[in-house]
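Note to self: keep these together.
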Amino acid sequence: MSNAARNALLIIVIALIVASIIFLESQKVRMFGPSAGAIDAVDLNATSTMVHTPDFETLKEKYPVAKELVAPDAYINTGGEPITVASQIGKKVVMIDFWTYSCINCERTTPYLNAWYEKYKDAGFEIIGVHSPEFQFEKKLSNVEDAVKRFGIKYPVVLDSNMLTWNAYNNQYWPEHYLIDINGLVVDRHIGEGGYSETEGKIQELLTQRKQALGLDIEIPTGIVDITQVIRSNSPETYFGAWRNEYLANGKQFTQGMQTFTRPDDRAMERNQLYFAGTWDLKDQYAQNQSADAHIIYKYSAKNVYFVASSADGVEIKVLRDGVPVAAQRGEDVDASGRVMIKEARLYKLINESDIGTHTLEIIIKGTGLDAYTFTFG
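Structure:
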């Protein structure tokens, strides 16, 4: 083949490759359907009246622009009206808080959020709770509404049932929050619990910047909210469903379907391992007992034990600690005889020790139909 022919063939091949790329790009499915455009950064120059701080040009080189909420499924505490990030920029300092109501870490963070909202809302602070569910039952609006009331949340909450806003922010944790200044820039973020005084100090700093930018004559509250919480645990979050049940010790891990379990000898049980007794149907997200008087056994090292569970028809469980019904160490959901009625899908508080210790928790299910999701500890 001559050089001219070779060059002509090369040109044709390159042209075909380019054409193919253009075609494939045109056929890509948009990740979030019609709302995909909403994951773009908020337009910081949407109006001619947009207020920026004097150092805005420098700051925007350092910090990312906030993303918009993506197609929320519902709004709570907004009077039924939508709320957007864009509508707050140039007016308020905003905290976006990703949470889910069965998460004990989120529950322990909520008192700080509630206190900050009450303390700073009149000084130009807004919180938008983005409820991004870990489990299927957390997608139900009435369940989230009940949790909002139970936790005393007054700030706006949006349902992110399909994790669209979660994905737009590339979020990875519950809880995780993002602080957005009056310019619309994400200038601070925090993962998990803790760091409360640092976060509150940043809120005060951003509100002071807002005050100066808007030329307001207002007082910014000072001092730090003090909510004492002692969190101590040497036991990991433990999942029951087949998708993440790596601590299941006497059955087939990561396997959906029916399994019959034999209760192991107490001396053979290891700490931080999950044991079943009876017949269980292991679903993706939870395990459901199919035989009455089924058992769950777990040797923990912690101060508090929490149980995420539900039951369509309601089922009674009995909670044993080291072989006897839990008494003085019972959590607030356990009655004086060591019993709990499990029905609504939520986090149940089973054990409340005076200090960290190693003990064996045993749950006896009096009927069938318990949906067991997780143990968490504190």
